[in-house]
Amino acid sequence: MSFLKKIWTDWKLSFNHRQKEKSFRNGLAAVPQVLHPLIPITGDTVHFKHTGHAGDVIYSIPAMKALAGNKKIRLFFELHQPNRDFTKQMRHPNGNVMLTEKSVELFAPLMQQQPEIVHFAAWNGEPIHYDLTAFRSFPFDYRMYSITRWYFLTFAVTADLGKPWLHVTPDTRFSDKIVIARSSRYHSPDISYSFLSKYTNLFFVGVQEEYETMKKEIPQLQYQQVSDFAELASIIAGCKLFIGNQSFPFALAEAVKAPRILEVYHQCPNVVPEGSNAYDFCYQPQFEKIVSDLLNR
Asked: Which domain of life is it from (predicted)?
């Protein structure tokens, strides 16, 4: 991306926040009423709706569980909502929308493994108690803080983020392997993964185009294709070490508390690793030291 395009992208990412904040400050926008269910909860399940992105869904689960309490969860995806966070220069697998029918297909096996979630499907107008995307109605600067905690700030709940919040069976075939994911978005300046060539058993998860880009830096890198997000989460949970940037695979690594290293994009540091075995970096020397310390100890 050219320097001028980068300036435009950074401005675009913050524009909606500034406009929303101005509306709140001038009394032009009503404060969303989110502290109580949209309709009374009368049964033994609490109904949630989310519009995405996929990573946002994973990061919403701690708040979802807190809001449900001792009741079970019915989760619905509202599909084909416009992409609100990325500019045209930032490629995304779902293009210009956040969740699609394919998203439901990929998520379903993972959601079916969660004991708290008894129903998962696309939303077709079913009654909803909580709209998880309500956090977008508040004037947060979405480039900052922590995606998971945006939900806490919105719904006035909390959870222990140092503990796993996704249930998966680790794939033990990857217990001696390093798993890597790096999306085309959110790259810290001057970061290179090429030094990883000195290590063995390197596998990439993500879209094919991202793998081809990374393979230019790490020639021996192998591509691990997955059929759904349950398989992806299982591989990440079972690996020796996961390395990724601020994308969906890291959300899974954070949720299952795999040994993990996060590449932080300094202009949008909204993912915060919490708990044990969690490291982050945005400079090359620190990146290489963390990897060396973890793999040579």
From this structure: Bacteria
